[in-house]
Write a structure and sequence with these properties.
Helices cover 28% and strands 20% of the residues. The protein has two domains: 233 residues, FAD/NAD(P)-binding domain (3-Layer(bba) Sandwich); 102 residues, FAD/NAD(P)-binding domain. The longest helix has 21 residues. The strands form five sheets. Strands 1, 2, 3, 4, 5, 6 and 19 form a seven-stranded mixed beta sheet that branches. The protein has a five-stranded parallel beta sheet with strand order 7-16-8-9-12, with helices on one face. Strands 13-14-15 form a three-stranded antiparallel beta sheet, with no helix packed on it. The protein is an alpha/beta fold.
């Protein structure tokens, strides 16, 4: 899709800028560098603080190990600051509080985009994490041939040398757009969940919703209240009778963990567990709109062509097709396997032990991210002796 191509061009442009601007500037040195200030990155920073690490610009504790958190966003909140406004606290899926600081009481009807970014900002301030933003990391590479030496982190605001890197960039910045024949001929609107704002903008327009995940079902329920919807998925949806509680999330994490250990591309939680009966799924079922159809075979000018040859008109195609790991900046390390992923066990790269990947694979979930941040710091501290 053109969106991914544009993102790749921007990444190359930023690399050229970094090389041109900072070639003669001495790199700064830090013991641990955290990339990303979402749930996983903030968890790691919190545990670094607890273990006696201090921000790289803090001269108050002589001889203390140092850390820095770099975040590409302009404000605190990670991906939560970009969620659609109709996502309320009552319907947010999988919130797990940051360590040492409970989510403040909030009206269930409050928009998550109002509550959670403010909560993240308070967390950063309370524990004095001194997140640097906006700073875009464009490349991580080995500084030299010493396997125990530093990793070189190149950004659009300078270069760092770090003993360990904790990559916590998540997936939000890399929405996945599958390609289907005829996609470029469609005269209506195509958008990804990443760019969804509200159902109101689709009133009176027929919307084809593509995807089998939680977001697809949640937006199906919401959009179907204002217009006609048509829901398609590539495979049958497996509904799990159990509620998607913490125990179910932990089981899902274990399934994805095995994939990334083998170096396969991380699968989604849903691909492991199947769909769970969330409140919005039950509401959609009760209203008679939770009707799944097989994936269309091609896109045409005014709609989609189904496998049986029938035609379904559409004004909008909403791609609720998930996200991919935002790790292009790690490419210089050469860690990607033929299976399409990076070999990771317990949040650590098996082929570059100075690198931890959290918010990747099994730690994409909020509870997984919190644990992964803690475990990465424990491993670093143990290794430092």
């Amino acid at each position: 899709m053109r969106h991914e191509k544009r993102g790749a061009r921007e990444q190359r442009r930023r690399r050229r800028v970094v090389i041109g601007m900072h070639a003669a500037t001495p790199p700064r040195t830090v013991d641990v560098l955290v990339i990303g200030a979402g749930q996983a990155g903030l968890s790691a920073a919190y545990h670094l603080r607890r273990r006696g690490f201090v921000p790289a610009d803090d001269p108050s504790v002589a001889g203390a190990p140092t850390f820095v958190v770099l975040d590409a966003e302009t404000a605190p909140g990670g991906a939560w600051q970009h969620r659609w406004r109709s996502l309320r606290m009552a319907t947010v899926n999988g919130i797990h509080e940051l360590p040492g600081f409970p989510v403040p009481p909030a009206d269930p009807a409050s928009a998550s985009v109002d509550v959670l970014p403010a909560y993240f900002a308070d967390f950063e301030s309370r524990f004095d994490l001194r997140v640097r933003r906006p700073v875009v990391v464009v490349a991580v590479r080995r500084a030299d041939d010493d396997p125990h030496g530093a990793l070189r982190v190149e950004t659009d605001h300078g270069v760092w040398l770090a003993g360990h890197v904790i990559n916590a960039t998540g997936t939000w910045r890399r929405p996945f757009w599958p390609h289907y024949p005829g996609q470029e001929t469609f005269t209506g609107r195509q958008l990804h969940v990443h760019d969804y704002v509200s159902a109101a903008e689709f009133a009176g327009r027929r919307v084809v919703i593509v995807g089998a995940g939680i977001s697809a079902v949640q937006l199906l329920e919401e959009i179907s209240r204002v217009t006609d919807t048509f829901w398609v998925t590539r495979t049958e949806v497996r509904w799990d009778a159990a509620e998607f509680d913490t125990a179910a999330r932990v089981a899902a994490i274990a399934g994805v963990e095995e994939r990334v250990r083998r170096g396969e591309a991380p699968g989604s939680v849903i691909s492991v567990t199947g769909q769970h009966w969330t409140p919005w799924a039950r509401t959609a079922q009760e209203r008679g709109v939770l009707v799944r159809h097989p994936m269309f075979e091609r896109i045409e000018e005014h709609g989609v062509r189904m496998p049986d040859g029938s035609f379904e008109p559409a004004d909008v195609i909403l791609w609720a097709t998930g996200f991919r790991a935002d790790i292009a900046h790690l490419a210089p390390l050469g860690l990607r396997t033929p299976a399409g992923g990076i070999r990771v066990a317990n949040g650590r790269s098996l082929d570059e032990p100075r690198l931890f990947l959290i918010g990747y694979g099994p730690s994409q979930s909020t509870v997984g991210a919190i644990r992964a941040g803690r475990d990465a710091v424990r491993a670093i501290v143990a290794e430092r002796g």
